[in-house]
Design brief:
The chain has helices at residues 96-100, 115-118, 120-130, 135-148, 155-163, 171-178, 182-193, 197-211, 213-217, 223-229, 235-246, 250-268, and strands at 21-25, 35-42, 47-51, 56-61, 66-71, 75-79, 86-91, 112-113. The protein has 279 residues and is an alpha+beta fold. Helix 3 runs antiparallel to helix 4 (135-148) and helix 5 (155-163) crosses helix 7. It is globular and about 50 Å long.
Length: 279
């Protein structure tokens, strides 16, 4: 989960200067059971993009390598300008460990080369991509082949990931509903997602805070009001979670969002374009 691109920064067919490209697309029918969406992006200017944790895993081709990235902690990814396009598949929560054949707790936050997990199959795919192959098709074909190997998602982890989207869900009640033990649930969720149920619930709640940045930056709500609406104990609780999950305070995230809005007005008036922007 990175800082979302604004409309002014995304390439369009109309007139005007635009620097970045980002587009989501629905996955093919063959992979839709495990892939939530596909996406395509190209950095239009050099910058460091902070990737915020949301408990999701992406398989991506960045123009150089096939990588599996698991967003359970903050990470900084540097993007260089140019024509290289990044294509990714966002996996559904609760399936990554089984699909990749590896416990997600053991994968580094910056990602792992897919050939280290899928061997020769992924290396052949990298060769095709390096020679100009269609990244969307190649990525989906890799997942399709894995499904044909007999992959089966862990229904307990999938059900838990779906239920934990609600901040009102309590772990003891969830354990009882799923007919398992807390220890078993924690083990299987950690294997599939890379963090335990309570941590995943905190990540999903923080994601809802992230979606409220625009309302905060425009003054339509306050930090205290949003914290209460999202179920945080108070504004200080939100601040501690934000620091732990991103390394920044809520105020800094809001300020960064507001600066993007100010840059939009600058670009629209035809002012000079800065060479580097940090998000």
């Amino acid at each position: 989960m990175g800082v979302p691109l604004r409309a002014w920064a995304v390439l369009t067919d109309g007139p005007g200067t635009r620097w970045s490209v980002y587009e989501e697309y629905p996955p093919g029918r063959e992979v839709a059971t495990v892939v939530a969406r596909g996406w395509i992006g190209r950095a239009g200017w050099a910058r460091a993009l902070r990737i915020l944790p949301d408990g999701c895993t992406d398989l991506l081709w960045d123009g150089h390598a096939l990588v599996a990235v698991n967003a359970t902690g903050p990470a900084l990814r540097r993007w260089l300008p140019g024509t290289a396009v990044t294509v990714g598949l966002r996996l559904r929560r609760g399936v990554a460990g089984s699909l990749l054949g590896h416990a997600m707790t053991e994968l580094p936050p910056e990602g792992v080369p897919l050939p280290e997990l899928w061997g020769e199959r992924a290396r052949r795919a990298e060769d095709v991509l390096a020679s100009g192959g269609d990244a969307r098709r190649v990525l989906e074909q890799l997942v399709t082949e894995r499904l044909r190997d007999g992959f089966a998602a862990d229904p307990l982890a999938v059900a838990a990931a779906h239920a934990l989207r609600s901040p009102a869900v309590r772990l003891p009640a969830l354990v009882s509903r799923l007919g398992t033990s807390e220890r078993n649930l924690r083990r299987r969720v950690r294997h599939e997602i890379g963090c335990g149920p309570k941590q995943l619930q905190r990540l999903l709640r923080f994601q809802r805070f992230h979606h409220g940045l625009d309302a905060l930056a425009s003054g339509r709500t306050s930090l205290a009001g949003l914290a209460a609406a999202l179920g945080y104990a108070d504004q200080s609780h939100l601040g501690r979670e934000c620091l732990r999950l991103t390394g920044s305070s809520p105020a800094r995230l809001v300020d960064g969002w507001a600066r993007q809005g100010a840059m939009a007005e600058t670009f629209q008036t035809g002012a000079a374009v800065p060479g580097t922007i940090g998000a």
